[in-house]
Amino acid sequence: MSRRCELTGKATLTGHLVSHSNRKTKRRFLPNLCNVTLQSDILGRSVRLRVSANGLRSVEHRGGLDAFLIKASDAELSPNARALKREIEKKRAAQ
Q: Which 3-state string (H, E, C) describes 53-73?
């Protein structure tokens, strides 16, 4: 399982840990990932995703999972989230 947010695409970054004597050693900046269960209003079911805390705030800000996925670009979504987005769009078109 990669350390990548399924909704925003946020992943690990690399950099240096710099000591007082200015020595640089490699380090990794990991995203704050949480396993969450989000409710889809259009599909009428819950979905489990691995989302960063920042991504979770974005979902809340946009008005829920369905609104977030409809507005999000396919490039930043995981394959699982992309399939969910297609499913939501199909259901929405049928209504």
A: HHHHHHHHHHCCHHHHHHHCC
Cα separation of 46 and 52, whole Å? 18
CATH number of the domain at 13-94, please?
A: 2.30.170.40
Q: Where are the domains of the chain?
A: 13-94
**pLDDT tens digits, 37-78:** 999 999 999 999 999 999 999 999 999 999 999 999 999 999
For residue 32, what is the DSSP state? -
Q: Are 4 and 75 in contact (CB under 8 A)?
A: no
Contacts of range 81-86, beta carbons closer than 8 Å, 24 or more positions apart: 81/6, 81/7, 81/49, 84/40, 84/47
pTM of the model: 0.86
Are the C-beta atoms of 58 and 6 separated by less than 8 Å?
no
